[in-house]
Each structure stands twice: as C-alpha cells, then as structure tokens.
Write a structure and sequence with these properties.
About 25% of the residues lie in helices and about 40% in strands. By secondary structure, the chain is of the alpha+beta class. The protein has one domain (about 30-245): outer membrane lipoprotein receptor (LolB), chain A. It has a twelve-stranded mixed β-sheet with strand order 7-8-9-10-11-1-2-3-4-5-6-12. The radius of gyration is 21 Å and the shape is globular. About 25% of the residues are buried.
C-alpha cells in the first residue's frame, strides 16, 4: 500500500512539473514598459542647508516618475522615452533623465543619446561590463518571477537588480545588462532611483526597427566624464550627483 501511494505521489509531482514547463513561455522579442522613479525628497535631504531643504520640499513633489519602453529582439535592445506622465514637475529636471540607449549584446557595443543641460551627447562605446553576484532572493515583477543580483558600478555605486530567465535577451533598462535573462528591476539605493517593469508585451519587434540614435556630440564614456568633471567642478554635492546621473 505504501509503495502504491509513493508511486501516485511521484506521478502527480512529475505531472505538475510537466504542466508548468508546458505553460512557461520564453520570450526572445517584445516590449517592456519601465517606470523610472526618483525620490526627490531623499535627494534633497542629502543637502546640508536645512532652510534650503525645507523651501525645496514646499515646491517639489516627493517622487518623480517617468516611463520608458525597452524594445528587444534576441541580442539587440532599444531603450527610449515612453508615454508622458502629466503629474511630473517639469521644473525639476536632471541631466540624462530621458536617455535613448541602443545595445548590441552580441557585439558588446552601446550607443546612447543623452541630454545634459544644454548639450546633447552621442556616446559610442563598449557595453558596460558588470560583475554581478546572484543571490537566492526572488521577487515577482510584472508577472515574472525574478532573481536578485547585486553589483558595484563606477567603482562605488551599489546597485540591486532583478532578472528573469523567462525572457532570453540578457539586457535591461539604461545600460544595465549581463545577467542570464532580462533585467526587470533596478534600484540604486544611495542615489534614490529605481527602474521597474510595469508590463511586458509579447509583440513583434523587427530587428530593422532597433537602430542606434544618431544625434549629438560624439564622445566615449571616458571623454564625456572628463568634460563633465571640468564643467561641474565647482558645483559641490550636486555636481557629483549630476555626474553620476549622466554616467549611468
């Protein structure tokens, strides 16, 4: 009797696994909407001038949210501004907050169009290489089970990412990539910025529509960083924050 019960349990177990495998859809192309969210109050609190902090909070919303679309097909991705958010405060503009980023993951090349104050840059360089440490923590994002990974970028900026292997393109928003699947969530705690997918669309994305931007002053990441450091050297904390934002 015990042997029969064991056999029945085993059959049920493998039937459930087979059914789950059949229902799992692995996407290699489509569109992902991301919400980029900045905690403006937290950024303001980093300043030393208490009177200035109080004044800014009276005229500034706590959060600023922007939407972006990430189009992907196999090893190519195109990240660009999406639908407008009418609730945004247009007076609070940060550099490089409306980037367009094309990445050829196969060739490890990236082209980004970035508006930084009154200058438009076209950054052509190798794709960012990130040394990820994958953890056992999981999170469901936009209906996909994701696993957490941690890393440091630009020497000292701690980032958290969540990726799913149910989307086979190993890209992500902005310049984040390099995990065994699509990154659906990114958080930079110290900079108070997050990117999280709101919805994943299984739709056709012709490879011919995934083309790099072409407008702006041509630079590499290194040459743009040199120019920004020189231009913002007297801006104190805000200068350093703007440089970090521009280089993400």
């Amino acid at each position: 009797m015990k042997q029969i019960k064991f056999i029945l349990i085993a059959i049920l177990f493998f039937t459930c696994i087979h059914a789950h495998a059949q229902n799992t859809i692995f996407l290699s192309h489509g569109r992902i909407e991301f919400e980029r969210k900045v905690n403006l109050y937290a950024q303001i609190d980093d300043e030393d001038d208490e009177a200035w902090r109080d004044l800014m909070k009276k005229t500034t919303p706590k959060f600023k949210s922007s939407f972006f679309d990430l189009f992907f097909n196999d090893n190519k991705t195109l990240y660009k501004p999406g639908r407008e958010n009418p609730d945004n405060n247009k007076m609070w503009q940060s550099p490089a907050e409306d980037n367009t980023v094309f990445t050829d993951l196969g060739k490890e090349q990236a082209t980004s169009e970035k508006n930084i104050f009154d200058q438009r840059f076209l950054v052509q360089d190798t794709a960012r290489k990130i040394k990820w440490k994958i953890t056992n923590e999981t999170k469901n994002i936009a209906g996909f089970d994701c696993r957490r990974a941690n890393a440091l970028i630009m020497d000292s900026i701690y980032i958290v990412a969540f990726y799913t292997d149910e989307i086979t393109t190993n890209g992500g928003p902005e310049s984040f990539s390099g995990l065994p699947g699509m990154i659906l969530g990114v958080a930079i705690p110290h900079e108070h910025i997050t990117w999280f997918a709101t919805k994943v669309y299984n739709e056709d994305v012709p490879v011919t529509s995934l083309i790099p931007p072409t407008k702006g002053k041509k630079v590499t990441n290194a040459s743009m960083l040199f120019q920004l450091k020189d231009a913002l050297k007297d801006w104190g904390k805000w200068g350093k924050r703007h440089i970090k934002a521009a280089m993400l």
